[in-house]
Amino acid sequence: MTTEPYSVFDPALDLELRREVDVPPHLVWRAWTEPALLMKWFTPAPWRTTACELDLRPGGGFRTVMEGPNGEKHDNAGCVLHVIPERLFVFTDALGPGFRPTGSAFMTGVIAIEATARGTLYTARALHKDPEARQQHEAMGFHAGWGTALDQLVALVKAM
């Protein structure tokens, strides 16, 4: 992760999943930026992503709806902050479309994609406002959940 200001990792506030995967960067990018593909891998099973809207430009909206096996439903809306095609995707729930404050912020997500000899170095980082929010996200299963989602992404793009 080399693009400032997202390259500084603060262990008191941030969580990170960093893994090299054996799929090409352009397919990882497509899986993150094409709603129909994102819906197939984004939520660890048995949960499902049942809706996705993505306006892939700074200030554009990014919304997902996740549904659990017992009818739980989480509607997550946010804003795209930064896009470098096939390299960097940054979004937050602190803002809505058009950079409008939402009043309820949990995290900013930073997805960095780098080509390697084997495939892609995938770095997913969650930036939090305070140590308590970071700890809450870790306790919710950040590493297992985001790791499972990445496994699902890789399986999806290998089948494409």
Q: Main β-sheet: number of strands, strand sense, barrel status?
A: 7 strands, antiparallel
Rg, Å, rounded: 15 Å
Shape: globular
Can you list the strand order of the major beta sheet? 1-9-8-5-4-3-2
Task: Tell me the distance between the termini.
Answer: 26 Å
User: What's the multimeric state?
Assistant: single chain
Overall average residue pLDDT = 94
Describe the model.
The protein is of the alpha+beta class and 160 residues long. It contains 4 helices and 9 strands; from the N terminus they run βααββββββββαα. The strands form 2 sheets. Strands 1-9-8-5-4-3-2 form a 7-stranded antiparallel sheet. A two-stranded antiparallel ribbon has the order 6-7. A hairpin with a 4-residue loop joins β8 and β9. α1 crosses α2 and α2 crosses α4. The longest helix has 17 residues. The radius of gyration is 15 Å and the shape is globular. 26% of the residues are buried. The mean pLDDT is 94.
